[in-house]
């Protein structure tokens, strides 16, 4: 592994990018990119909660147990139904 590629891997693991589509008025979608600090073992739900608590409080989603038991957080991510509480 070259010195430059080591740096790239380190950079990729220091943060994650989330894109979220929100509706601003009927039929007008806005896509925003959020950068979230990476933490080993974090789930997609952890990233969404970070965005809501630190970057954009208007981001809306449902969550309850945060452990993959209740199914409350189910959502479509890249057109696939996913439980973000258990997906990394
Ligand atoms: S919050 Fe319970 S499964 Fe996601």
Describe the protein in words.
With 88 residues, the chain is α+β, with helices and mostly antiparallel strands. The chain has a domain of 58 residues: Ubiquitin-like (UB roll), CATH 3.10.20.30. The chain contains two helices and four strands; from the N terminus they run αββαββ. The protein has a two-stranded antiparallel ribbon with strand order 1-2. Strand 3 and strand 4 form a beta hairpin. The relative contact order is 0.15. FE2/S2 (inorganic) cluster binds next to loops.
Helix/strand/pairing category: alpha+beta
The CATH homologous superfamily of one domain is termed Beta-grasp domain
Molecules bound to protein:
FE2/S2 (inorganic) cluster
Distance between the termini: 25 Å
The CATH architecture classification of one domain is: Roll
Biggest sheet strand order reads: 1-2
